[in-house]
Design brief:
Helix 2 (21-32) packs across helix 3 (47-57) and helix 12 (276-287) runs antiparallel to helix 14 (304-314). It is built from 14 helices and eleven strands. With 318 residues, it is an alpha/beta fold.
Length: 318
């Protein structure tokens, strides 16, 4: 029953974010796997619209935060406000106390703001002064980066990148999708707004997460999953060239993320077991931000996606 609701939600998201099926699927995988999503792509590709549409289909509050160089940690976490009437300090909650957060152009914020967001993403809590406040059980951050502009930006530290479950790279839609986008925007201008068929409650979402964790994963496939991650650290044992390409491999957090995402992918496709295709389908998005290329690879113009594809070629499928 819950799987049907998510199938309907996927259909709704695809009708609202045209030409970006990988983005809509990554949103559902992230929320089902209880993780955060980093989306990189040019402006105007409906990244904000995607999270807004997801918020309409899932019970929960949505908040967009535009990251800028003058943003302060208190602008996202909240701060203590002095109430003269009672002579007391009262904590005013910030945007992070919503369920779905869009951190727009996250790399424009300075390190202190990124650190505050890192605590929220990793620990599901914020600390203000001497007090720590827990966040909601349903808490997901979708952060965006614009690859076209690097001036005045603060590159995300590796520790924070690793906190993202998935790193998705999207590009412009094709001509046929561009026409559909025109028709959609004209329809909305005429107040022809489309709503999701039903809203998924948080209870249904949490139940789906437990169901996903119970999916069958055969032991040889579990070993295959682990070997894909190990290959990022010990690539030289598989292929000399691969060993030269990778400076640092993925951490055990990548193994956990790959397991969760593969299970969510299988569940969304109506299976009660994980297949090799599920692992391979999510591998690029799981590893793209978790491996660091060597100077030699960068000098040769080798991309992370090419390295991950090479790993898939070298590690035998059971």
């Amino acid at each position: 029953m819950a799987a049907n609701a998510f199938t309907q939600l996927k259909t709704y998201l695809d009708s609202q974010i045209i030409g970006q099926p990988e983005l809509t699927q990554a949103l559902l995988i992230a929320i089902l796997a209880d993780g955060h999503l980093l989306v990189e792509g040019p402006p105007g590709l409906a990244k904000t619209r995607a999270v807004n549409a997801l918020a309409k289909g899932v019970e929960g509050s949505f908040q967009r935060v535009q990251f800028t160089p003058d943003l302060l940690p208190a602008d996202v976490t909240g701060t203590d406000i002095y109430r003269q009437q009672t002579s007391e300090f009262v904590f005013e909650k910030g945007p992070l106390f919503h369920n779905l957060i869009l951190a727009d152009e996250i790399n424009r914020a300075p390190a202190k703001v990124q650190s505050a967001l890192l605590e929220a993403m990793a620990e599901r809590q914020v600390t203000v002064g001497k007090n720590t406040y827990p966040l909601s059980d349903l808490f997901m951050v979708m952060a965006t980066q614009n690859p076209l502009e690097q001036e005045g930006t603060y590159p995300l530290p590796e520790a924070q990148l690793d906190r993202f479950l998935l790193h998705l790279s999207i590009n412009y839609p094709g001509a046929e999708h561009e026409r559909d986008i025109l028709r959609l925007t004209r329809g909305e201008a005429l107040s022809e707004h489309q709503a999701p068929a039903q809203q998924i409650s948080q209870a249904e979402l949490f139940a789906s997460r437990k169901e996903i964790l119970g999916l069958y994963l055969a032991e040889p496939l579990e070993q295959y999953l682990v070997q894909l991650i190990i290959a990022t650290r010990e690539g030289a044992q598989l292929d000399e060239q691969l060993g030269r390409w990778i400076e640092y491999g993925a951490s055990p957090r990548a193994t956990i993320a790959l397991d969760k995402c593969a299970r969510a992918h299988a569940w969304l496709h109506g299976r009660d077991f994980v297949a090799p295709d599920d692992i391979q389908a999510v591998l690029h998005n799981v590893l793209r931000h978790r491996i660091i290329l060597s100077y030699e690879a960068q000098a040769d113009g080798v991309t992370k996606d090419q390295v991950i594809s090479r790993i898939l070629e070298l590690v035998a499928v059971p």
